[in-house]
């Protein structure tokens, strides 16, 4: 993908106040990320790594503590009128279609809701029918008067996607879009998202803990750990030749992975007490095995921040060991 990014973040930090005098939690701790027109980016990491908080910031639901979000070259403004206009162009697809659909609303009303909120003028019925058809519910009129409980999980997710499409957005933010679906349906929904990208030129940020999903849908992947992106690049590069030990550990537990799975020690640190040096060093299998010591970077791993990838889409990794063994420079600090 070339050209200017559609959406961009620069040095975004999001902190939440600690309770009872505890330190602030640094949920997002300096993130640069670009999404270009027609590009699908997968944001990958364990639960609690900050990826959903970052996604909420991109939707304007959370205002960054510091840093900036820009869309189509303009800074995101958090006034009510500006956000309303922005949300015509950027739409959310949630993980659980049952939770995001009102059980008392018909499919027609669920899809038409966005049009009514934004004061659509025109043939509402035709627009709703077109959105349902694009989402794979055909003939659309057959679904107008159905309720969510009358649909399968895959059909409910298609209704949610139709509700996003009805406003003709340029970017979808999909938070675990197939996590609640049966395996047999997941491929259909992923194929639908790819088809919508090809037909409509949509961009998408897909938030997931599943690297297998990233492989199947994304052009580029950004791996997040404890509030920061630690590795980014084209999906084929990152998932076939991972450079960061954390990415290697995530990949090692996939069913199709060769070799022994990497079992990380302990839990991710508290985001209110981020360790010095590389934030992954306390769980790092490369440091624990002595490989970092042999590469001469063990002390740096424990004491020196490896910096953050700059978000431009070029392959980058925030890891002293990777840079020492590959002979590259580090990301920006």
Automatic annotation (TrEMBL):
Protein name: ABC transporter ATP-binding protein
Family the entry assigns: Belongs to the ABC transporter superfamily.
Keyword Transport: yes
Alphabetized UniProt keyword annotations: ATP-binding, Nucleotide-binding, Transport
Family matches, as PANTHER family: D,D-DIPEPTIDE TRANSPORT ATP-BINDING PROTEIN DDPF-RELATED, TRANSPORT ATP-BINDING PROTEIN
ABC transporter domain boundaries: 7-251
Any Pfam family: ABC_tran
Molecular function GO labels: ATP binding
